[in-house]
Amino acid sequence: MTGMNTAGAGLTITPLKIINDDRGAVMHMLRADAGVFVGFGEIYFSVVNPGAVKAWKRHREMTLNLCCVSGAIRLVVFDAAEGTVREIDLGPGRPETYNLVTVAPGLWTGFTCIGDAPAVLANCANIPHNPAEAEGLPADTNGIPYTWP
Amino acid sequence: MTGMNTAGAGLTITPLKIINDDRGAVMHMLRADAGVFVGFGEIYFSVVNPGAVKAWKRHREMTLNLCCVSGAIRLVVFDAAEGTVREIDLGPGRPETYNLVTVAPGLWTGFTCIGDAPAVLANCANIPHNPAEAEGLPADTNGIPYTWP
Known about the structure:
- Two copies of one chain form a homodimer.
- Chain A is mostly beta strands.
- Chain A has a single domain, classed as Jelly Rolls (Sandwich).
- The first copy, chain A, is built from no helices and 13 strands.
- Chain A has strands spanning 5-6, 11-15, 18-21, 24-31, 42-48, 53-59, 64-70, 73-79, 84-90, 99-103, 108-113, 119-125, 134-136.
- In chain A, the strands form three sheets. A six-stranded antiparallel β-sheet of chain A has the order 1-2-10-7-12-5, with no helix packed on it. A five-stranded antiparallel β-sheet of chain A has the order 9-8-11-6-13, with no helix packed on it. Chain A has a two-stranded antiparallel ribbon with strand order 3-4.
C-alpha cells in the first residue's frame, strides 16, 4: 500500500484519494486488500458539532479505521505506555488531511470538530460495537496530558 | 434484523438508528452480523453536488450497501427484468430517510443530490471497485424510463 506511514506504536496514517469531477467526487476509505485491513466488524459514523469534544475512549479489542468524510476533525491519540500525545487533523477539505488513521487496541483516542459545520467521522472497525471491550475517561481527566480547546 | 423490508426483487431497505446527544450523534450503518451482510470488499464515498446526477450503473458481482451520511440523496433503482423504477430518498436529516439500501447485482442505479449542500453517499460493498464487473449508461438514456430533474 503506497504512502503508508507508521506514526508511532499502533498508529498508522494512510493517505487516501479523492477523485473530483464536475458532479462531485469519489473518496476512498478502505479496501479488504489494504495492508492495514484486519477484518470487518462494523462501519458507523460519529457526527460532531462545532467545538464539541468526544473523549476519551480506549478499546481492548477494536482496531479503529478513522476517516473524516465531511467537515474537519482534530483527532488526539494518547499512548499511555509511551506517555506521548499525537494530534492529527482530518477532513476532505484539503488533500493533506484526507487520510485513514488506523488505531490499534490499547491507545486512548478523543476528537473534536474544528470547523464551522458538524463533522462526520467514519469508523470501519474490525469488530462490532461492544461496550464490554472499551473503557472511558472524561474529556478533562487529569490522567491524560492534553487540554481540549 | 428488525425493520428489514424487501422493497422489490434484489432491493432491501433497512431502517438505521441515529443516537443523538448534545455533542452530535452516532449513526449506524452496517455490522457483519446483519442479515443483509454478504461480505466486505470496500467502503468508499460518493460526494454529489446540488442538482448533479450520477447515473446509470449496473454491477454483475457487487452488492451495494448505500447510506447517505450528509445532505440528501434521491436514489433511483431500475429493474430491467421487471420494468420497474423505484425512487428512494435518503439522508440523516429525517429519521424516516436514514436507511440502508442493499442493492443486489443486476439492478441499475443512479442518484442525485436533492439538497442545497453537497451530499455524501457511503457504499459498503462486498467486493472492491472493479470496472470490469460494471457497465454504464448515460443519465439521459432512452433505455431506462426515468427522467432526471
